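hey so u asked for the seq, here:
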Amino acid sequence: MEYDPIKRSLGNVFNKNPFLRKTFYRLLDLLLLRAWHVHLELRKWMQVSPQNASILDAGAGFGQYTYWLNTKSKDYSILSVDVKDEQVADCNRFFREIGAKNVLFEVGDLTKYYKDNSYDLVLSVDVMEHILEDVQVFKNFHRSMKTGGMLLISTPSDQGGSDVHGDGETSFIEEHVRDGYNIVEIADKLKSAGFSKVEARYSYGSPGKISWRLSMKYPIVFLGKVPKVIGFLILPFYYLIAYPVSFILNFLDTRMNHATGTGLIVKAWK
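ran it, structure tokens below
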């Protein structure tokens, strides 16, 4: 399934004014299990990070993680890079409307982008599965980070990531160039790029797999099969039933240690 057209449709609905945009971000924070895991790791980082930290949101998408970080501290300096011109322009417009002068979005190709010794944190959420030249990107991240800086990655694993469970299956998201990373493979690639320490753990364990299907896969498949107006009218009623279950499953997934899982949370330090 092509995910980008559905994301564009959602963006068009919620980008009409800042209030709707903030509501959209809040919904993503509640629904996306990856956001629960990423926020958990970011809170740990904030406990030891510089007060005026410099942050690169690498592959910022809608800008929801930039927004979340900006709500935690106005002292952060955040540069958010994405390859899509229209998305960058839209995000810059929103962040100017809410007066976030410490945030800037730029168009950039992560296989070519670097800024020497500039960032205390590099954040990359659901990006690396879209980029074939991953080691080059890791080298650019390392080059761009300050000594002691941290890289935080969320990406599908090879244990059923992208909803691929066998050799004959293809990714649920057609824009992916790989179905998922082996947990040892991504650690080795990061070390080869220069990182001195790497920690990787599984996310989307047994509770998370069920939650993802309830909160994301089934609604996305539904939106892909019906007119968007009908889909957006029906989905709120679906979530009234499904979300309480997903909330409990998300809570459990972030509190458990998983021997395997369809997602990976990876941290690396320079």
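The two ends are 37 Å apart (CA to CA). The first strand starts at residue 54 and ends at 58.
lmk if thats what u needed
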